[in-house]
Amino acid sequence: MTKTKTPDKRTIRKERTKEAIKKAALEIARKEGWNGVTIRKIAGRIDYTAPIVYEHFRNKDDLYFHLVHEGFTRLKEETFSEVEGKGSPEEKFLAIAEVRFWFAVRNPTLHHMMFDAENPDWQKIELAKSMVSIMQMVDKLVDEISGQPEKRMDYIFNMICLIKGYTFFTNHLLNTSTKMSRHFPADEDELHKLYTDAIRRFISSISKK
């Protein structure tokens, strides 16, 4: 029987430092945007020197890549985990939409970096690789729900607009520092209900008559 190797203290310390760096970067980005993130600011926030940060990430772009890559990996894993065990195509479709909503609400800065920021070419490639399995599942579900594969692209375009619109405005409304949140106060549960109602209406609108 093979024994599982226990990580030594040095390895554990390095992993904790790496996680602290990523957390600090996201905290700074939430307040100042990604352009406001610097290695020096990250180091100051975690009480280390800049060279320590460079031991874990080559530069700011490398850090961005790791954050986005891990974000897409988590989103994919959470999506397939949530869909597993669901019965009908409608239930599976709703589960996919639910995962995206809660991922956006719980990780607003990371979600923005993944989907709403100006994406460099490498990130577009990462997005395509990470989302292809989810989109293949969505394609199949849309065909099963609608019975109209020839209209699949129209339906998916509408779905993407619906999800991106709701997640974008939900995060703005929940961010108390934005003007929008002051003019349109709303809570998480209320916004979630509006979102799920909209998704259910969309499913109903494309369902076989």
Structural notes for this entry:
The protein has about 210 residues and is mainly alpha-helical. The protein has 2 domains: about 5-55, Orthogonal Bundle (Arc Repressor Mutant, subunit A), CATH 1.10.10.60; about 60-205, Tetracycline Repressor, domain 2, CATH 1.10.357.10. It is about 80% helix and about 0% strand. The protein is built from 10 helices and no strands. The chain has helices at about 10-30, 40-45, 50-55, 60-85, 90-105, 110-115, 120-145, 150-175, 180-185, 190-205. α1 crosses α2 and α5 packs antiparallel against α10 (about 190-205). The protein is globular. It starts with 8 loop residues before the first helix and ends with a helix. About 20% of the residues are buried.
Number of helices: 10
Q: Whole-number radius of gyration?
A: 20 Å
**Could you give the order of the helices and strands?**
HHHHHHHHHH
Q: So what's the overall shape?
A: globular
Q: What fraction of residues sit in β-strands? A: under 5%
Q: List segments where confidence is low: pLDDT < 50 over at least 5 consecutive residues.
A: none
**Major sheet description:** none
CATH architecture identity of the largest domain: Orthogonal Bundle
CATH homologous superfamily annotation of the largest domain: Tetracycline Repressor, domain 2
